[in-house]
Amino acid sequence: MTVIYETPRVAAVHAAPVFLDLERSVEKACALIEEAARGGAGLIAFPESYLPAFPLWSAVTAPLGAHDYFRRLAGNAMRVPGPELERIAGVVRERGVVVSLGLTEGTAQSVGTLWNANLLLGPDGSVLNHHRKLVPTFYEKLTWAPGDGAGLRVVESPAGRLGMLICGENTNPLARYALAAQGEQVHVSSYPPAWPTRDPAGGGNYDLEAAIRLRAGAHAFEAKLFNVVASGYLDASTRAALAPLGAEALRVLEESPRGVSLVVGPDGAPASEALRDEEGILYADIDLADCVEQKQFHDVTGGYNRFDVFRLTVDRSAQRPVEFTASGEPRGGPGAASPADRGAPPVIARDGGHDGSGAGALVAGAGDGARDGAAGLG
């Protein structure tokens, strides 16, 4: 069988949502998908928590002053499945593209528990993968609950074998290796518009752009793949919405380093220009054949490793608050993974029961297990 190397055009959406307004942010996301598709993109990547906004307030004010923002975020959190996702899936299906979508996810089981999530939508509008960020980073713990390993998957797509991680997860070598070991060819990294850690007046702030470039280059070089980075954009309406926090909070936010969107090639070098200070869509044409030569040098998930020395086990169980069983039903529920999906070296993936809450719904793709409940999206 002759291997066909895809040559997709990829697009990183460097844009702001309509701050904490899910309906209007979905409308803008649909328009951006339409625009990127007209620009020839086969894969379109959105920033972290694009729907309905990244919780920047947690960085610049104490929790005592953030209750109203959290309530608005919870009230505009997206359900998976849900009508907003169905609307986006309809545009994806009409355009026949692959979309990586960052969102804050809510569930019917709790009005106060949220996840930082990312969906991969296939060209038929189905959910190929649904990932919840494993560990919220630093002050993000004030907003999001920890995720699970159910979304640590690589899926087949017209843009190649596709995986994704959210922001600081791209610092985790085990998470990155778990994807690389599944034959990842294109990786999506999503980030916020800014990530303040100190008052810029005193120096020593976290340099988000430098961190993004370092991590994107490291994963691209180590896994020999293309890394599509999509960061958010801080627009005037977001600043206005955060103005009640006070002038000092806005100054810290304004002076903090910005996120950057770009594409990095399998040699670790940039494969595109970058977007940082203006809103827009970044395009790059990539050739997956470029990954092959680099794999000849170092294939850490193949010939350049020692699986008799190292072994990684990944638990891809979907965590849930309660497990219900019926007589005759196997533990783990009707969506429990088959033994074949538990993998083999270089990575062992142990799939447990799937989320019965409806909050983590997936349509299975390419033989990979998935959360139950979203078959209606296809």
Identify low-pLDDT runs: 333-344, 353-378
CATH architecture: 4-Layer Sandwich
CATH structural fold name:
Nitrilase/N-carbamoyl-D-aminoacid amidohydrolase
Q: How far is it from the N-terminal to the C-terminal residue, by CA?
A: 30 Å
Number of helices: 9
Q: What is the topology, as strand order, of the major beta sheet?
A: 5-4-3-2-1-11
Q: How would you describe this structure in keywords?
A:
alpha/beta, five-stranded mixed sheet, globular, Nitrilase/N-carbamoyl-D-aminoacid amidohydrolase, 378 residues, disordered C terminus, 9 helices
Structural commentary:
With 378 residues, this protein is α/β, with parallel strands linked by helices. It has one domain (9-297): Carbon-nitrogen hydrolase (Nitrilase/N-carbamoyl-D-aminoacid amidohydrolase, 4-Layer Sandwich). It is built from nine helices and 14 strands. The protein has a six-stranded mixed β-sheet with strand order 5-4-3-2-1-11. It has a five-stranded mixed β-sheet with strand order 6-7-8-9-10, covered by helices on one side. Strands 12-14-13 form a three-stranded mixed β-sheet, with no helix packed on it. Helix 5 links the parallel strand 7 (160-166) and strand 8 (186-191). Helix 1 runs parallel beside helix 4. The radius of gyration is 20 Å and the shape is globular.
